[in-house]
Write a structure and sequence with these properties.
alpha+beta, Alpha-D-Glucose-1,6-Bisphosphate, Chain A, domain 4, 7-stranded mixed sheet, two-stranded antiparallel ribbon, 3 helices, 25% helix, 37% strand, lipid transport, lipid-binding, cholesterol transfer activity, transport
């Protein structure tokens, strides 16, 4: 329940932006290399979670930002290796398969946005599947709950 610009300001993948302030799954976000105005290699780190059963992770992705004529905004990413970002000793390297989100304006309803996100992540390391299965659903639900709260505050 917010305008596209409000939602986008909260989720866009840029350093120092709102995402790491409201999303407890994002500890830090940095641009490793800006390839163009719309493409960059980025590193995202996460804190340890689930009573520290899941160690901190790092993800290195190439990210594409695109805006369409109808106002839809896309952020798409996939994992990549980069010489300036070798695996760090205090993190487990995870992999994001092709993923992203669309912020789509709803015609006639400027204070509403349709958000579609898709992702498939390999957390890496040696995690029992039961741990992953019990952590991910609440993490995803928390993402949308937190986004809804922060968008209301952003207004």
């Amino acid at each position: 329940p917010a305008s596209l610009r409000q939602v986008w300001e909260c989720i866009k993948p840029l350093p120092g932006e709102h995402r790491k302030k409201w999303d407890p799954n994002v500890k830090d976000f940095e641009i490793v290399e800006a390839i163009s105005e719309t493409v960059a290699v980025c590193r995202t780190t996460t804190p340890s979670v689930f009573m520290k059963l899941i160690s901190p992770r790092e993800f290195v992705d190439v990210v594409l930002l695109k805006e369409y004529e109808d106002g839809t905004v896309l952020s798409a990413a996939t994992n990549v290796e980069h010489p300036r970002c070798p695996p760090q000793p205090n993190f487990v390297r995870g992999l994001n398969y092709p993923c992203g989100c669309f912020c789509i304006p709803i015609p006639g309803e400027p204070d509403k946005t349709h958000l579609i996100s898709f992702f498939q992540t390999d957390l890496g390391g040696y995690l029992p599947q039961k741990v992953v299965d019990s952590f991910f659903p609440s993490s995803i639900a928390g993402l949308y709950s937190n986004l809804t709260k922060v968008v209301k505050e952003f207004k």
